[in-house]
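Chain A, query sequence.
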Amino acid sequence: MGIQKERMLAGELYIADDPDLAEDYARCERILARFNATIDRARHAALLAELVDEVGEGVSVRPPFRIEYGYQTRIGPRTFVNNGAVFLDVAKITIGADVQMGPNVQLLTATHPIDPETRRARWEGGEPITIGDNVWLGGGVIVCPGVTIGENTVVGAGAVVPADLPPNVVAVGNPARVVKHV
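Chain A, predicted structure.
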């Protein structure tokens, strides 16, 4: 394993065009091409199991689907991910059981330095995302790096979630704000 991949997996700044990471990305792209080209749900399940680190029983992910590496993502049982989802998993993405995601949801763990020289030198990073059990993310929700969404929380369509949300709430807007407790 190359030093940049080790740095990425450790949550440190890394350079993404490392040969090991490029190989991992290409592997993911090959599996995604097969996943997105079929409508056979049994084939989807088999390819998803090959693609991500852990996938629970009864998970359904509808194509088209995009994911960066796959091995940083865990999806809990009975989770449903509608079409157009994007999971940038340069850091860990953990999705609980019975989660529902509307179309075009984005889970974005990637970060980039604010300092222009560091960014110009191609350094980047990532912060993990955790989605609790029984969360519902409406269509077009964007979850930003480092965010945890508590169990039973509902996030309204189009919301941008830049900070943690507690369990048992409804949150809407940009930035997402709690509007109701359940």
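The radius of gyration is 16 Å. The mean pLDDT is 97.
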